[in-house]
């Protein structure tokens, strides 16, 4: 069983914990193609393309200029530790030991507009590039078109290596769309998190993102290998609801969360 997550816009490049190994991303040529295209655009064009403020546009324009095909301890960090958004707040890395990172490397994949698909310990340099960006690269009209079936094919390889045909979807709709379902040879099990009050439940983005991270952390630390075991998840106060779930859509409910929404 392998779980997929979205990346994060927020990044943390403080030093990684000592002893955590690293690997290299699996699509270096494709990433360089995208970087070459991004470098053709001014900061203002980058801002318009990705709907960024002037400050963020300038920051990312500089990041693309600084990007190097060589990953080092000085310019890069393990993806799982570098991403710092709401999803990744759900991980308790203070409790992780080396076997947890090793298990995550085989059971967790991070989707990325720049890298396609990342293993947790793959090094990444600072960047921001959402999968839905309409950036023409070569003959592709945008990143979905550019990545095509490559992400699904890589996931097929990883699933075969894991000995499973189950993919747990913990990614957003924007990112999971990059996984070509016609190419993917897997049963997809989605985890849905809803908050409510007085029996009325809905997905609240802020809480759902955090819950996806909590679930991924649970999968790693509990060594979850079968989708049935996901039903035992109670992180963040959520619990599996049999009545609103199906075999391939596991719904987790939490009472009272809607009242706390930011």
In terms of quaternary structure, the protein is single chain
Estimate what percentage of residues fall within beta strands: 15-25%
Which class best fits the helix and strand makeup?
alpha/beta
- The average pLDDT is 95
Which runs of at least 5 residues are low in confidence (pLDDT < 50)? none
Shape: globular
**What is the N-to-C order of secondary-structure elements (H for helix, E for strand)?**
EHHHEHHEEEHHEHEEHEE
User: How would you sum up the major sheet?
Assistant: 8 strands, mixed
Keywords:
two-stranded antiparallel sheet; 16% strand; alpha/beta; eight-stranded mixed beta sheet
Task: Please give a structural write-up.
By secondary structure, this protein is α/β, with parallel strands linked by helices. The protein is built from 9 helices and 10 strands. The protein has helices at residues 28-38, 43-50, 54-66, 79-82, 98-107, 143-147, 150-162, 173-176, 205-221, and strands at residues 2-5, 77-78, 108-112, 116-118, 123-124, 166-169, 187-197, 200-202, 239-240, 249-255. Strands 1, 3, 4, 6, 7, 8, 9 and 10 form an 8-stranded mixed beta sheet that branches. It has a two-stranded antiparallel ribbon with strand order 2-5. α8 links the parallel β6 and β7. It is globular, with a radius of gyration of 18 Å.
